[in-house]
Amino acid sequence: MRGVFITLEGADGCGKTTQATLVAAALEARGREVVRLREPGGTPISEKVRALLLDPANAEMVPECELLLYEASRAQLVRQVIEPALERGACVLCDRYYDSTFAYQAGGRGLDETLVRQSNVLGSCGRVPDRTLVLDLDPALGFARATAGGVDRMEAEGLAFQERVRNAYLRLASEEPSRVRLVDASGKKEEVTARVLAALDDLWGE
Predict the structure, then answer these.
(1) 34, 68, 98, 159 - which has most CB atoms within 10 Å?
(2) What distance in Å separates the CA atoms of residue 10 and residue 96, rounded to the nearest whole number?
(3) What are the tens digits of pLDDT across the range 31-53?
């Protein structure tokens, strides 16, 4: 079986982590090796970068520094984990990838889009997902979920920031419909999982 690279995206509180768990279990039940990852993170170096990025104490971090840290974490993950897994035929399921950087740093922060896209090429080492699923949920509902137990540095930016992030994701889905698919993230988690799996059906060559 060939390796397949799937990424889950969406604004904070959309249910990505829950769906990653359920989808991984469903794919494993079909006999696939699943390598489940998160961004930023997934390697010892990348997890240290994650801690820097999400720590509310680092409120003075400027957008350009933030962008470069995300890309550095991603490059390490791609070379150390993602590429070897794909080469041996695994299904890589990643909770966030470079589309998050476009949505948050270009859409949310307002950094130059061309600059962010170029940075994403470097940070991803040119590795493009086979399918990206954007779990789409009303930003107000997602934000309420995400912040119920406190906020990290990104969540502290507030609801208007999350709305800009969602709009950026909607743009990506319209620009790259063959790769980026919107999935309704409302309703019961099992219903969302069924939608996610349906949006992946054409990827399997078995």
Answers:
(1) 98
(2) 8
(3) 999 999 999 999 999 999 999 99
